[in-house]
C-alpha cells in the first residue's frame, strides 16, 4: 500500500455529516436493487478476507479438495501455523519489520513536522522554491531510482541491514504536504499569544502546535506505519538471508517453498496481517484521514 | 535550535510592530535549519539517485553492474527498436486500464449504494475497509492460493456452474487479468473512501432541486451527481494510473512476468533486467527507469495543470 498519493490544491475535508433527507433515499425497487448490489459486492470483495482466515485453519485434505470446501469440515487445525513458523523465522522477521516501521514512522514524523512548521510559520527566503522541491519528491516514482539506491546500499555495505531498509523512507513529501495543510488552518492568534507569553519558536512547535494538531500527526503516523510494514520491492532487493528479511518477503517465500500446502501459506498471511488488521479495526478514522488527504477539491 | 527563540526584548515590542511576525521569526537561513533533516534524506535518496539513474542510462555496465563507459543513447535506441519492449509497454498499458477503470467503477457503485439511507452503513464501511490491512504481498499470496488451477477455490466455485478449470496464472490470456484483479481488489476500498467523501459534500438542496425538476434514478446519478464529483473521479483516475504504473509485488509473486511475458510490465521489466537472476544490467535497466519516470511525470504534470484550471474555474 505504498500509496503514491498526490496533493490536490486544497485541504481534504472529512466526509460531511449526513443529514436526514428525502433526497438521498429511494423507495421500493430502487432500494431492493441497492441491497442486492451491496450484498453481491460484499460477498465478492470480502471473500478473500474470509477465505484467507478460514483457510488458514483448514487441514490439507479440506483445503485441497475439489470441489472446494468453504469451511474446515474435519475441524480447525492450528498445525498450519506451526508449519509456517518452521519454514520462516517469523519472530525474527516480525522484529525486522517492526524495527523498520518504527524507524520510518519516527523519521517521517520528525522530518515532516519540522519542514511543515518552517514552511508555514517561519520566514524563509525562497519559501515557494523549498516547498516545490520537497513536494517534487512525491512525483518521482521510487521504482525509477531504485537501481542507484540499491547500488548505494551495496557500496556502503548495508545490504541485509535494517538501516538500509529504513534510510530512504525517513522523509516523505506526502508527510510534509499533509502537515502543511493542517498547520495552515492553525489559528494564528495562538501563535501570537504564545509569542507574547515568551514562548520561543521551538517551544511553540513542540508544546503547542504538535499537541493541537495531534489527529493529523497520528494520521500521518498510521499512514507511514502501513506503508513501511507493507513494503515489498525494496526489502526484496536489500535482504537475502531469511533472518534479515521482513515478514512480507517471508510470506512470499512460504508460497514459493510449498504451494501445495495452502493452509500453511494462509497461516503465514494471517500472522503477517495481525498488526495491520488491528490498526484498520481500531485506527480507522486516522486511516481515512491519511488516505483521503490529497483528494479534496 | 534554541538560537531561534525570540529574545525577551523582542517580545516586549509586540504592540509597536506593525507586522510582528516578520521581526521575531528567525532570519531566513535560521529557518532553513528546520528543512535540513528532510532535505538530507531527499538529496541522498531521491535527487542524487535521480541524477545517477540518468547517468547510468548512458553507460555500458559490466557483469557486476559497474559502469564501463559512455554509450550515448544506445540503451534507448535498443529499447525502442526491440519489439519485446513494445510488448512491455502494451502490457503496462493493459494492466493500467484493467486496474484503474474497474476499481473506479466498483468504488463508485459502492459509494453510491452506501449513500442511500440504509441500515448497517457502518458495518459495510468497516467491512469494505478490511482490505486496507492487506499488503501487496499478503493480497497476492491469498489470490495465488485462490487462483490455483487444480485446488484453488475460484475454479472450485466455478465448477458448480459448469465452468471448466482455468489456468488463471499460467495462461497468457488470463494472467494479466488475474494480476489486475488482485490490484483492483486492493484499490477499491480507497476509491470508495474518496468517492464517499465527494458524495458527502454534495449539497442536499442540489439533489432536491434536481428531483423537483424530474430527475431520478440513473438520470439523477449520471446527470447531476457524477459531474459534481468529477474532481474526485479525475483525481482517482490520475493517481490510480500512476500507482498502477508502479505496481510490482503482485506481479513478482503471482506470475514473475510470465507466462510468455504476458504480465511483464515496465517496472517488472526494470527488475528483470537489473536484478533477476543476477542479470545486473544496470545501464539498460536505468534507461527503462527513465522511460518510467518520464511517463509518470507527464501524467502528474497533466494532473496539476488540470486541477489548477479546475480550481480557477470553480
UniProtKB/TrEMBL annotation, chain A:
Name where it's found.
Answer: Cell membrane
Membrane topology, as annotated: Multi-pass membrane protein
User: Which CDD domains does the UniProt entry name for this protein?
Assistant: TM_PBP2 (cd06261)
Q: Which residues form the ABC transmembrane type-1 domain?
A: 94-283
Which regions are flagged for Low complexity bias?
1-20
> Per the record, GO CC terms?
plasma membrane
Q: Which family does it belong to?
A: Belongs to the binding-protein-dependent transport system permease family.
What is the protein's name according to its record? sn-glycerol 3-phosphate transport system permease protein
From TrEMBL, chain B:
Q: Which CDD domains match?
A: TM_PBP2 (cd06261)
Keyword line: Cell membrane, Membrane, Transmembrane, Transmembrane helix, Transport
Q: Residue ranges under compositional bias (Basic and acidic residues)?
A: 15-25
Major location, coarse class? membrane
Annotated transmembrane regions = 28-48, 89-114, 126-146, 152-169, 176-202, 287-307
Keyword Isomerase listed? The answer is no
Q: Which GO terms describe its cellular component?
A: plasma membrane
Ranges for domain ABC transmembrane type-1 come to: 89-303
Region (Disordered) location = 1-25
Where would you find this protein in the cell? Cell membrane
UniProt lists the family membership as follows:
Belongs to the binding-protein-dependent transport system permease family.
> What is the protein named?
sn-glycerol 3-phosphate transport system permease protein
Organism field: Microlunatus antarcticus
